[in-house]
Amino acid sequence: MDKIKISVVSYLNSKPFLYGLDHYKFQTEIDLALDIPSVCAQKLIERKVDIGLVPVAIIPKLGEHFIVSDYCIGSVGKVDSVMLYSNVPLNEIETILLDYQSRTSVALVKVLANYFWKINPNWIAAKANFENDIVGKTAALIIGDRTFGLENKYVYAYDLSEEWQKFTQLPFVFACWVANKKLPDNFINEFNEALKLGIDNRPALIKELNKNNVYNTDIAVYLNEKIQYTFDAPKKKAMNLFLDYIAKLD
Questions:
Q1: Which is it for strands 172-179 and 66-75: parallel, antiparallel or unpaired?
Q2: DSSP code of residue 79
Q3: Neighbours of 80 (CB within 10 A)
Q4: Nearest by Cα to 75 from 13, 9, 145, 23
């Protein structure tokens, strides 16, 4: 059988998955690539990979697809790494710069703006170093590891996962493992075992990462408390509700 090609998000939140995939002894060979979320999504859409840890907002664009894992990148309340930063309160924001790295977070901020915050800003696709453009009534959506250390830089910081929970009383799912074709059951079982291996070995991973902490955050708190990895019934309900909202926006 050919190698199974897998695209994984390169953020801190996916390190437990990578740990498991690196340490598990697969019967089938795998080919791992590290990408930002939007590239994971594009590779899956273009069938350059077989499985991707992809932003859930792209699921409707995939046509035939299979959610292949019991695990996801989710959160309950504050996640600390999907943030809207501003120097004015929500009702005074006129423009929001949109992070180019994830479609789900872009869709989420638009859903919240329209249905929860009741604001109608100008949306601008951001370019590199857009963090420096948060001035006046211009806010910005910033995601992933680049949010670490920014908590006190701006007057207002809105955690989008926390805002979603206020809006829906539900958790949130940012990314899940999706295949663009039917894969053998034995491989899917192994894949889930590998991911579980990584989740179960977070203490060893955290110890390793803390030797050279380049993330400017408390890694143990983030991986153990902020990110929720089990793709359980409440998260599935939340994901389906979110996809419904996205469809209404379109």
A1: antiparallel
A2: -
A3: 21
A4: 13
Nearest-angstrom CA–CA distance, 19 and 234: 26
Site of tokens 């999706």 = 178
User: Tokens 């203490």 appear where?
Assistant: 203
Sequence-ordered list of residues with C-beta below 8 angstroms from that of 129, at least 6 positions apart, any chain: none
Query: Which stretches does DSSP call E strand in 87-212?
Result: 95-98, 122-125, 138-143, 156-159, 172-179
Q: What is the dihedral of CA 212, 77, 244, 69, to 10 degrees?
A: 50
Residue owning tokens 């006129």: 94
104 and 55 in contact (C-beta within 8 Å)?
yes
Query: What does DSSP say about strands 95-98 and 138-143: parallel, antiparallel, or unpaired?
Result: parallel
H or E stretch at 39: helix 37-45
Q: Which H/E stretch holds residue 245?
A: helix 233-249
Per the CB < 8 A criterion, the answer to whether 126 and 97 are in contact is yes
The SS3 of residue 247 is helix
Can you tell me which residue has the tokens 């939140």? 13
Please report where in the chains the tokens 């437990």 appear, as a residue. Answer: 16
| Cβ count within 10 A of residue 91 | 8
- Its sign, for the CA torsion 185, 191, 195, 197, is positive
The whole-model pTM stands at 0.92
Which parts of 126-232 fold into alpha helices (H)? 160-168, 185-200, 202-210, 219-221
pLDDT along the chain (250 residues), means of 10: 88 95 91 89 93 92 91 96 95 94 89 97 90 92 86 92 98 96 94 97 96 88 96 97 92
Domains of the chain, start order:
4-75+171-249 (3.40.190.10), 82-168 (3.40.190.10)
